[in-house]
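lol ok so funny story. i was supposed to be doing the assay writeup but got distracted and ended up predicting the structure for this chain instead. priorities right. anyway since i did it might as well share w the group, maybe its usefull for someone
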Amino acid sequence: MSKYFMKTEEKILNKALEMFNERGVEYVGMREIASVLGIRVSNITYYFPTKDDLVNRLSIELNKQNNEVMVVNRDLTPCLFFEMLNKIFHHHVRYRCLLLSFVHLIYQNKLIAEGYKKTQNSRNIALHENFNALTTAGYLKKLKTDEMNLMVSTIGIIVRFWVSEAAVVYTQLPPEKQISHYLKLIGGLLMPHLTVKGKKNLMPFLKIAAG
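and the output, tada:
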């Protein structure tokens, strides 16, 4: 793949992401993106035949970045787990248009809908295994199966939908403050299930986040 191809493709992706973030995925068309870039629509459709293909590519990029962060770590600590979440939340800020239009995209974009099912399954598996690692290391109390499933499900909901709620309820706060709020929310959810060792490990991180 030539450097020119990569450069043009990257320019299209970056400008599309910028415009989608500013105005919403539903309200920006291929012609508008082409106009801002000063190119023909055919230059965009050469790389991305449809808008769905373009949006799906952005979704793949977000998923790729999150996959590099949310990994199974046998040496995991509560602090490292929250550092994972912190990085993922920052990725969500950069690709916030996808989360703000989440429901619309799931119903309208088959490529994203198919990818979402696979992603959620792998995320849930990673969360379960990481919580098992925290338990084995003595940071997390042993949870019953239904308790573990509830914890994974609740954290998953917060991670997927925090951007939408923040856009309505905490719009006056900068992204860092918004992220801090939702990290503390997950911290409050997890804290009663941590051992003394786990609480000691996590508290410094939560204090920094609160600051």
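The mean pLDDT is 93. The two ends are 46 Å apart (CA to CA).
back to the writeup now i swear
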